[in-house]
Amino acid sequence: MDKYxxxxxxxxxxxLLLLLGYLAWMWLRxxxxxxxxL
Length: 38
What we know:
By secondary structure, the chain is mostly helical. Helices cover 82% and strands 0% of the residues. The chain starts with a helix and ends in a 6-residue tail after the last helix.
């Protein structure tokens, strides 16, 4: 049970970090666009 729960926590943390990194990257890209492109 300990191995399984630690595995689930690791997978959840990695997925959350990837999602947050993707959202931050998109936000920075949108912020760096010139206003005329919108």
